[in-house]
Fold these 4 entries.
Entry 1:
Amino acid sequence: MKEFKGVWIPYEILTDIKLNDKEKIVYSMILYLSKETDCIISNMYISELLNITKIQSSRIINSLKKKGYIKVEMIYKENSKEIALRKIIPIYKNVNTYKQIATKPINTNVKEIINNNKIYNKNSHRYKSERDYSNFDWTSLY
């Protein structure tokens, strides 16, 4: 198995509302590990990385399978019903896996955007200093 050094969660997975947090992490791991070869990962390995039980990791894999994100192939030992290997194959649902993608740029000049009123003005009163507090009874706060 390829050495696992970390996980990068693609934007499409991060914003997918059908997946919970753990499913996003596990699916990203599967995408990373299956980049060059088939992903062969055990429930024990997932449970140790995420500090969850083997049953929880099994439920996550089954949930991803049920939702159509992965396909699971079992390879059995010869003349036996014992599982020798489990291959997890990701089904790519509009996921740009580990490639540089052009996403929405992060606004670095927020002051300029606020000054140009290009943002939603729901809280625009916060930036105004034209408030009049002369008739307010400040002692009522104490």
Note: The longest helix spans residues 21-33.
Entry 2:
Amino acid sequence: MIAQRVLAVISAVLLVAAVAIATFGPESISLGQALYLFDHDVLDKLPTWSSRTLGNWVWTAIIQPLLMRPAWLVPASAGLVCVGLSLSLSNRKTTHRSHRRS
């Protein structure tokens, strides 16, 4: 029950952040450009770090395409995943202990 509420709050925060980025951010800014605005060194260190720790294929197949997507897409998709997890946890039936009569 607590996990369901926590996931619901996280999803609400992420979806509001996605709408705020899409509304108030620069028009059609990519995630790579947004990260570059926050910290210039991130995009310089990210390829070497990901290749060293995760492998070169992670950089070319996952991270590079993700950096080209709109900046609002990442929090929106994470928020939708949290909504789905929250709803799936809320639909579970709880098991009640049976009380035996003596």
Note: The chain has two domains: 1-26+72-93, 30-69.
Entry 3:
Amino acid sequence: MDLIEKMTDSQLIFDGYVVHLYKDTVQLPDGKTGYREYVKHVGAVCVVPVTDEGEVLLERQFRYAVDQVLTEIPAGKLDYPGEDWAEAALRELREETGAVPRELIDMGDYYGSPAIMGERIRMFLAKGLTFTENDLDEDEFLEVFRMPLDEAVKAVLKGEIPDGKTQCGILRAAMMLQTEA
């Protein structure tokens, strides 16, 4: 069965700074008409920075949409469509934590809510960290801390880290590092 839906009409409902909300009319695989509301986003990166001592750099940051301080890995949106994923990851990592990696490993894509969000997050593992000054955005307030990677895995499995990209990134990185050992 062909599962592809074909857009026949698209209406921009809201054009924001970060997100753009659309309502599309689509032709469904069975030929009928359906509607899809979704958010377009330029894309983002996230990084699991692991020190030589096996600690992951994490951040505590207030997230307005869920009204909570969450524990997350460093992340940020692309500055423009088509920006190089690795360059964006290196920028975000340095800006938020001051860390500069010797090695940056692409761990693939993460789609957090593909039914309604077009946001594609490219995930990276960063190793061999050296440190310089961070350079936070004007409206960015966060607390950086370290946690042994095995404890971060346990925190994910216990449900103590609810952020999806952080869960996925930590588990992917742990498995990749485990297979290297």
Note: The longest strand covers residues 99-110.
Entry 4:
Amino acid sequence: MKIGDKVSVLDENLSGIVTSVKGETVVLKDEHGFTHEYHRKNLVMHQKDLYEATPVVRKKETDKPVSKKHNKKPLILDLHFENLVDDPAAYSSFERLFIQKEKLQETLDFCRRNNLKRLEIIHGIGDGTLQNMVLDVLESQINLDFHHNEILRHQSGSVSVLFR
């Protein structure tokens, strides 16, 4: 170190310019004009060109892996009675609703067993009996969120379910 060198003090937030060197003792003047004495081994030289020659290498960021199950389209359950049985005219209205409710419960259980994240339930637009049954079943379930796919509840013919 020589007079005029810029130095910083180890383990302290202090830097300055060397004003004198006496053996192993170095006197430096800080930015406020105060002088400080330190042992040579407690000081570090400021070298502007130390890192200028080092090239900057930018590494490509890796993509976060996403499970293919999360990218899939939702499982679709159509509760229209014609799609559930061969002869819809052979059933009473109570039996129809019971079979639709049973199919809904089976599908919810299937989604949970297979770790599916999304389900779309199509109940259609009608007098609201099937829609109310679907909402009652969904409200009784835990660890899932659901919402209608339309703004107004009675205009919606389907419900989206998201499993947590």
Note: The chain has two domains: 6-49, 68-163.
